[in-house]
What we know:
This protein is mainly β and 164 residues long.
Amino acid sequence: MVRQSKRQNDKPTDKPSEEVRYEEEVVFEVKPSGEVVATSTTTPPAEYVVEVISTPSEPPIMSAVPEELQVLVPEGFFEGLVGVITNVEIRPFPALGTSAVVVEITDDDGKKYSEPLWIREVVGARSKLGSFVKVLGRNPKLWVGKKVRILYWRQAYRAVELVG
């Protein structure tokens, strides 16, 4: 429910008025059908309110999503991460106007980590994508099954090594 308020008779007048004017409140409700309905109510100023009735706050958004639809987002890479590349896919990101090679690494405990390696026309050896290409080659499909260690994972300074 969204509330917007506006003053009645916002036009300036030369004559003082003796009638009491309250603030008009417009309340928007979304019906289960998806229809948005606006209703207008007039509420007295705070000094005339005798009792304040509050409604319980809305539950968090995540609780409204069924558990089977909730998705766990893997953490990104970090320095010292050692694991096997279990999945590599090239994914478009139309909103950003680019694509990325999304690499998933699974560590020895079975925890998954994922990171997009942004595709650019020219990649440096210390970029996200460049650090993988330098060690594993230009074909991301051949990276699956390789065990790697993330040596450095800082902006503009990334390094990966192949673990025997």
